[in-house]
Amino acid sequence: MIPMTLNEIARVVGASLHDVRDPQALVTAPSAVDSREVVPGGLFAATVGANVDGHDYAAGAIASGAIAVLASRPVGVPALVVEDVQIALGLLAKHLLEHISPAVIGLTGSVGKTTTKDLLAQVLERHAATVATDRSFNNELGLPLTVLRADATTRYLVLEMGAGQKGDLTYLTELAPPQVGLVLNVGTAHVERMGGGLADVAEAKGELVEALAADGFALLNADDPYVMGMVGRTRARILLYGRSVKAAVRAEDVRMDDRARPAFGLVTPSGSARVELDLIGEHQVSNALAAAAVATALGLGVAEIADGLNAARRRSAGRLEIVERSDGITIVNDAYNANPESMRAGLRAAKTLAGTRRTVAVLGAMGQQADASRARHAEMGRLVANLRFDVLIAVGAGDPLAMAEAAESSNQGVAVHTVEDVAGAIRLATTLLEPGDVVFVKASSEIGLGACARALAAPLS
């Protein structure tokens, strides 16, 4: 955050000052929407959610060091009152970017955004000052919060951009116009809200490359036909990445070790180098190539890129997060979110990791799958059976029951159980687990199966 007085911020966002003793007080630190994450010298943005009203926490935020509260009504402590806090945060972020000059990298896709963002940040920060999206703060609130962490020293600004519906990426790219736009893939995440088909998802994701200037770079996944369909939608220079031979940044000689970690030869226009990832799953090759493509467009050499990828570690919780228990049970927590593409990748990664060990899948619903939801859950049930998982625990009513029925009717020997809720999953899994098991846990975030993964991973008493 570049230092700004409360008066300056008020002019930028169109706010009126309430209970402010010193309009020249300087805001020197980033903003937060969670009062527990307030940084001394920053702003607390009081947003109203489904269950929590941030205005109720305004006094506590000031006590924790916030200079003022960005609010939609007076709160009895220093406040900048605006009509819409979310819009005001966006205006403030846009203003900041007009006064600093980082290379802005926007990335989107149906799956893999957060892992790719984490890999890319670890490559770039070895080279220069880098600010990247925290966790998965990739929406109309999260993006401004990320931008407001940048300052005059920031060289690279890596912005994960989520799209729940058409128009979302247009809005985000207006707040933070990217010089580099990366599209990972087109899948069924949010398909219900985008129109019901993959072409609709592609239309929404392509808003990112449409926002690029002619001197920018559009980095497109050569292995995804829907992404390749975006070639004609951008003025920017195009750089293809993927496992296809037509990709300028590609992988050769992909191999998996006994811990399900992929290694491959990274080929770029500047040469080649060996990459050995410390992440599980063959799908991570595509995420690593995406990060490598961005770094290539920014002028990094292949050796620098490979070194960064080789040193990178998992940063975000709930994404193929592995915990080894003292009794030899391995918990694979992939419960941050779920759609068919990520569910397939996670199941295969867990099975590869297990090798000959007994495998247990604890699976809940995948949200926003529109009219095809039941069929897609049944497909996952068949995949569990075909991969020869030993046990399936399907959590919840509705679509998870279709998953269970499909697994059972596949006659592949999987023991199928159903439970009503997360608490039931914890109880049942605790009784079923045997030393040496590999347990894979996944569902959409609203199901809350992360609590199950954490409970199973807890140290033994």
UniProtKB/TrEMBL annotation:
EC top class named in words: ligase
Q: Where is the Mur ligase N-terminal catalytic domain?
A: 33-77
One Gene Ontology BP term is:
cell wall organization
Which reactions appear under catalytic activity for this entry?
A: D-alanyl-D-alanine + UDP-N-acetyl-alpha-D-muramoyl-L-alanyl-gamma-D-glutamyl-meso-2,6-diaminopimelate + ATP = UDP-N-acetyl-alpha-D-muramoyl-L-alanyl-gamma-D-glutamyl-meso-2,6-diaminopimeloyl-D-alanyl-D-alanine + ADP + phosphate + H(+)
Q: Which GO terms describe its molecular function?
A: ATP binding; UDP-N-acetylmuramoyl-tripeptide-D-alanyl-D-alanine ligase activity; UDP-N-acetylmuramoylalanyl-D-glutamyl-2,6-diaminopimelate-D-alanyl-D-alanine ligase activity
* EC number in record: 6.3.2.10
Q: What GO CC terms are in its UniProt record?
A: cytoplasm
Please state the pathway this protein functions in, per its UniProt record. Cell wall biogenesis; peptidoglycan biosynthesis
- One Pfam family hit: Mur_ligase_M
Give the record's keywords alphabetically.
ATP-binding, Cell cycle, Cell division, Cell shape, Cell wall biogenesis/degradation, Cytoplasm, Ligase, Nucleotide-binding, Peptidoglycan synthesis
Which ranges carry the Mur ligase C-terminal domain? 318-444
Q: Which Gene3D superfamilies match?
A: Mur ligase, C-terminal domain (3.90.190.20), Mur-like, catalytic domain (3.40.1190.10), MurE/MurF, N-terminal domain (3.40.1390.10)
Q: Which residues form the Mur ligase central domain?
A: 108-295
Give the matching PANTHER family: UDP-N-ACETYLMURAMOYL-TRIPEPTIDE--D-ALANYL-D-ALANINE LIGASE
Give the protein's biological function: Involved in cell wall formation. Catalyzes the final step in the synthesis of UDP-N-acetylmuramoyl-pentapeptide, the precursor of murein.
The record's family statement is: Belongs to the MurCDEF family. MurF subfamily.
This protein is called: UDP-N-acetylmuramoyl-tripeptide--D-alanyl-D-alanine ligase
Q: Which species is this UniProt entry from? A: Nonomuraea turkmeniaca
